[in-house]
């Protein structure tokens, strides 16, 4: 005795006869038609001809079910469209942050809108660029001055994995805040040079030009 | 029951002894007499070890070849995964059938009410099915199993009372267990 073979839909993971109860039914049908034309005929051929001939034969309950399914699908399609638009309109911001001395790190913002797993992405980044990469509240922080490389890489990644093109990527540079000691030193130097008479007072936001 | 199960609930994985998988097959045959050892060997080959995945809330999952076969709470009965059930013909299990209108709600995770079974298109569970037995739920006009649940009323009661929850749904298409990938 052999086993029963069930075909599972690659789109929605359901057995193919349940595809129309899924929210992606149209896509599922297309997939089935491409991959298992025989099964498709068996499942959907009768239905289509029925609709054309007469609706009287189909009892009211079936009609109701079909209607509600259609509604569900429509809603899902709308939702997906919204999401796509959202993705198209969103911006990725790559921010370069100065660390101590000449060291820099970059922060990537706005990736969470896309269907990418941040955790996996961070591993990918750290592998690719051989640096540390961590997630700080939905932002990726990479160690090292890699803004240009990352921009290229993100563009490539989005095209490959999400099929999205022309996503805006913006690069900014954030200056590091100077520490108090440095501010004091700067002020002292300015006085020595005679360019400024303002003295640095601890805690104040006074800065020399 | 598995609605919220995600990958994050997994605590650890360990291999099982082959004696345990042999035992399991024996138990399955005892429970479902129509299954044969050859069939089970196709699903659980002797050479491939089964593994046990432990999850939150004392849930353990039995897998083989990267497919989940059973779930088990504490040491209760094995709950077969739908993909496992769909490998066997319908008459192997205690089963019932619901009408078209109920499918949508079951896939949303609701329990099965009596009218869904008694109406045209539904089939009552086997006479010998007792309360708290696992039943496999099929749907009108569909071949594959839709969900697995626990029977909450006897066949007779469903027919006469025709009100309230008849089957408590445990595992259905598209729930957390179904979407779990290992």
UniProtKB/TrEMBL annotation, chain A:
**What keywords appear on the UniProt entry?**
Coiled coil
Tell me one GO molecular function of this protein: translation initiation factor activity
Is Coiled coil tagged as a keyword? Answer: yes
UniProt feature coiled coil, ranges: 55-87
Q: Which domain of life is it from?
A: Eukaryota
Which N-terminal residues, if any, form the signal peptide? none
The membrane spanning regions, by residue number, are none
Which ranges carry the SUI1 domain? 92-158
Q: Which Pfam families match?
A: DENR_N (PF21023), SUI1 (PF01253)
Name the Gene Ontology biological process terms. formation of translation preinitiation complex; translation reinitiation
Task: Establish whether keyword NADP is in the entry.
Answer: no
**Matches recorded under PANTHER family:** DENSITY-REGULATED PROTEIN, DENSITY-REGULATED PROTEIN HOMOLOG
Name the chain's protein: eIF1-like protein
Species of origin reads Hanseniaspora valbyensis NRRL Y-1626
TrEMBL record, chain B:
The record ties this protein, via Pfam families, to: Pre-PUA, PUA
Q: Name one GO biological process term.
A: formation of translation preinitiation complex
Q: Which UniProt keywords apply?
A: Cytoplasm
Report the locations given in the UniProt record.
Cytoplasm
Gene Ontology MF term list? RNA binding
Q: Where is the PUA domain?
A: 94-174
The record, for InterPro entries, names: MCT-1/Tma20, Pre-PUA, PUA, PUA-like_sf, Uncharacterised_CHP00451
- List the GO cellular component terms: cytoplasm
Statement: the UniProt record of this protein carries the keyword Cytoplasm: yes
UniProt xrefs under PANTHER family: MALIGNANT T-CELL-AMPLIFIED SEQUENCE 1, MCT-1 PROTEIN
Q: Return the similarity comment.
A: Belongs to the TMA20 family.
**What is the documented function of this protein?**
Involved in translation.
**Protein name in the entry:** Translation machinery-associated protein 20
Originating organism: Hanseniaspora valbyensis NRRL Y-1626
Question: Lineage from the top down?
Answer: Eukaryota, Fungi, Dikarya, Ascomycota, Saccharomycotina
């Amino acid at each position: 005795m052999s086993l029963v073979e069930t075909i599972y839909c690659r789109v929605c993971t359901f057995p193919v006869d349940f595809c129309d109860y899924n929210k992606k039914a149209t896509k599922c049908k297309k997939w089935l038609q491409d991959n298992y034309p025989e099964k498709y005929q068996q499942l959907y051929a009768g239905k289509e001809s029925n609709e054309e001939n007469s609706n009287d034969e189909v009892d009211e309950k079936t009609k109701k079910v079909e209607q509600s399914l259609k509604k569900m699908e429509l809603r899902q399609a709308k939702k997906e469209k919204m999401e796509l638009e959202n993705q198209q309109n969103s911006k990725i911001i790559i921010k370069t942050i100065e660390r101590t001395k000449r060291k820099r790190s970059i922060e990537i913002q706005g990736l969470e809108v896309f269907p990418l797993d941040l955790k996996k992405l961070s591993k990918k980044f750290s592998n690719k660029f051989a640096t540390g990469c961590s997630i700080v509240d939905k932002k990726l922080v990479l160690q090292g001055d890699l803004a240009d490389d990352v921009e290229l890489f993100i563009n490539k990644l989005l095209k490959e994995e999400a099929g999205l093109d022309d996503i805006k990527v913006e690069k900014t540079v954030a200056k590091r805040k100077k520490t108090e000691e440095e501010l004091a030193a700067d002020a002292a130097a300015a006085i020595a040079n005679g360019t400024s008479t303002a003295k640095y007072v601890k805690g104040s936001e006074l800065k020399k030009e | 029951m598995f609605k919220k199960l995600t990958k994050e609930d997994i605590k650890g994985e360990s291999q099982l002894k082959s004696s345990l998988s042999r035992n399991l097959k024996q138990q399955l045959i005892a429970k479902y007499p129509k299954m044969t050892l050859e069939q089970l060997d196709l699903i659980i080959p002797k050479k491939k070890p089964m593994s046990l995945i432990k999850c939150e809330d004392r849930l353990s999952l039995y897998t083989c070849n990267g497919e989940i076969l059973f779930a088990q709470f504490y040491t209760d009965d094995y709950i077969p995964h739908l993909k496992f059930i769909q490998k066997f013909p319908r008459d192997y299990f205690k089963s019932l059938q619901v009408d078209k209108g109920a499918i949508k709600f079951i896939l949303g995770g609701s329990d099965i009410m009596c009218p869904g079974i008694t109406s045209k298109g539904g089939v009552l569970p086997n006479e010998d099915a007792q309360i708290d037995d696992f039943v496999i739920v099929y749907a009108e006009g569909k071949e594959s199993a839709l969900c697995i649940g626990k029977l909450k009323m006897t066949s007779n009661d469903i027919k006469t009372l025709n009100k309230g929850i008849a089957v408590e749904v445990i595992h259905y298409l598209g729930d957390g267990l179904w979407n779990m990938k290992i």
